[in-house]
Amino acid sequence: MFVDLGPKARAAVCAIWIAGQAALILTGSMRAEGAFAFRMFPESSTIDFTLYRDVLSQSGHGTDEVRVAEGKWLARDASGTLHKFHWDDRVKDGNIFPYGEPIHASYGARAQLERLSHALADVSAHIDEDAETARLVAVVVVSHNGRSTERVRIEGPWRSGVR
Amino acid sequence: MTRKESSLDAPVSSVGDTHALAAARIAFGALLLFQAWETASEQMREGFFGDHFHDPFIPERFVASERVFAAILCAQAVAGVLVLIGHFARPALAYSACAITYAMLCDRLHFHHNRWALASYVAILSFSPCDRSWALGARRHAANTGPLWAVWLARVQVSIVYLASGTSKLLDRDWRSGQVLYDRFVRYGGAALGRGVPERVVAMFQQESTGSFLAKGAIAIELSLAFALQTRRFRIPAIFVGLCFHAMIELTARVELFSFTTFAAYLLFATPDYRARTLRFDPTQSKSITLAYVVRALDWLARFDVAAWKPDAVAKSRSFVVTDRDGEHHTGFRAILALMRALPITFPIWAVLVPFVRGPARD
Known about the structure:
The complex is a heterodimer of chains A (about 160) and B (about 375).
Chain A: H1 7-26, E1 46-56, E2 63-68, E3 72-76, E4 82-86, E5 103-104, H2 109-125, E6 133-144, E7 148-155
Antiparallel strand pairs in A: 1-2, 1-5, 1-6, 3-4, 6-7
Chain B: H1 3-6, E1 15-17, H2 19-46, H3 66-85, H4 89-106, H5 113-125, E2 145-147, H6 149-170, H7 173-177, H8 179-194, H9 199-205, H10 208-228, H11 232-252, H12 258-266, E3 277-281, H13 286-298, E4 304-308, E5 320-323, E6 329-331, H14 332-342, H15 347-353
Parallel strand pairs in B: 3-4
Antiparallel strand pairs in B: 1-2, 3-5, 5-6
């Protein structure tokens, strides 16, 4: 069914293929997880993250940071009705879940931090019935290949209409 | 077929037998089916990825809806079957490569290097005449030869994977020093003990020197495989080292289909020489009939012409004779070794045994 290529077309396909693979490999660092660059088993790093909510302060001025245990929290909507929220209602990837214990950063710490940042934005955008949370914050303890640890704070976007 | 025709030395113009290529196609067909099942299972377990947090490489408007994605997955499964049976195999391979890549572009949380490797190999195979042999219902005397330039490209792709992986590790200070492996062994030591690995073995792996040695070994193996596989002289030992390397990875890490994808790609390194070896056996002896049956069943690369001989005075002293492609005859244990070397499933056993054997059966 497929037409067999002539010699010139074959050479062209080979050249384009190899050049394309080389380009993807050489630009692998530009993608947090080194996607399409065959960087297998890049790290043994772990992330351990705790989720916080910035909620409107009781005083009416500013926000207070409240810890979210096991990815679950309660919040009221604009009419005062209480709702239950789960981090994993939106985030199914177990590698970015606030278990409170180190999780293997399977494609490297940088990739997991980037994904976590995107996840914070996604969850923030999908909790319409939460009229108390001004933004979500993740405090992450990153262990770089067991050699050094680093504390990283990732702040989600401010939620419109809450602040 | 002349030596020149079967050679892959001139990649663009090379022509040869397609049985080994078809064997690789069948292996990749099975992997594609499994891959489709894996992706479908993920979606069933977690729900459609588009309904919860996903992280696309492409703009959101190009991400498939649930129905479209389900249709893509169903078509992927059908394509896997078509690749297996060899009908419309080339379009099915091209489609499968696109579908796997598209799924990863829709959600980078489901990106895995082994899936990209699989997509790359099957994309290349779609350019090859992999449907000319071992195809269900194919005409018996149809042409089994074809242009093999895509086989050369697939071989290069294997080296690209090793080269990229090995180089990225070499350039990484933590990998090069062994810190990555050491930390991994320390962290998963408890799990290994739980699986019954002896404490002494776990303790040995949890030493910095062991991590350093294994890291340097892994980098050296990956980089040397990238080059050795491309040479006739070192190809056979390289394939054996590669098999052991991937077997170790498979035992110690969760890598989805990576090892099996590589094993399938290794089939493409077989020299395309249809029935260039012979097995002649005594049809009056049950053990030689059994051997012939086993060889026919395991000869996925179509390397042996298997036939019974007419009993005569000379033949009575032996039950089977293997003739290599260079015309050399082997009997007894050496014949068994010659068979094991050429059959994919017994090749690793041959490679283990051959250092202990003296003489021509080694070559």
